[in-house]
Amino acid sequence: MAEIEGELAERRRDQDEILIGALASGATDEVAAELAGCSARTVRRRRHDDRDFHEAVKQRRAERTAALTGRLVDLADRAVDVLVAALDDESPRVRLRAAELVLSSGARLRRATDVDDDIAELKRLASTYTAMFESGETVAAVTGTVTQ
């Protein structure tokens, strides 16, 4: 009996690994289910009812995103070199397009940096207010005063 339970647990771990990998890579429930040899209903149930499973998919997706982001950052220097070379191209159309890409990319990067700064400030404020709440302090939303 213990041997059967061990085999079932191992099969479940193997199935979970396949499901986690597939879902983290963007597969639909149906595709992930087919790869793992289970039903799409099982996949949906696992994603919604099993917090550890949900967190494992989220973690794996974050790892994949970080790896891909790292690769893109590594390639960015080469891409910038191509744009620099294109800015000196003989064709005015190529130079204009390169200039448009440089300017639009710079603007998007600036907006992304602003958003990152805003998020960091919101996290700081949330942390401050959480600490105040947990210590029993209250914050008057309109006046900005703190009372004990």
Topology:
Blueprint: H1 2-24, H2 29-36, H3 40-49, H4 51-87, H5 92-135, E1 138-139, E2 146-147
Antiparallel strand pairs: 1-2
Helix pairs in contact: 1-2, 1-4, 2-3, 3-4, 4-5
Brief rundown of the structure:
The protein is mostly helical and 148 residues long.
In total, the number of strands is 2
Order of strands across the biggest sheet? 1-2
State the end-to-end distance. 61 Å
Mean pLDDT: 86
Question: Biggest β-sheet, characterized?
Answer: 2 strands, antiparallel
The whole-angstrom Rg is: 25 Å
Q: What's the order of the H and E elements?
A: HHHHHEE
**Helical content, roughly?**
over 70%
Shape verdict: flat
Low-pLDDT parts are none
Continuous helix count: 5
Overall description:
Helices cover 82% and strands 3% of the residues. With 148 residues, it is mostly helical. The protein has a domain of 70 residues. A two-stranded antiparallel ribbon has the order 1-2.
From the structure above, extract its key features:
single chain, 148 residues, mainly alpha, two-stranded antiparallel ribbon, 2 strands, 82% helix, 3% strand
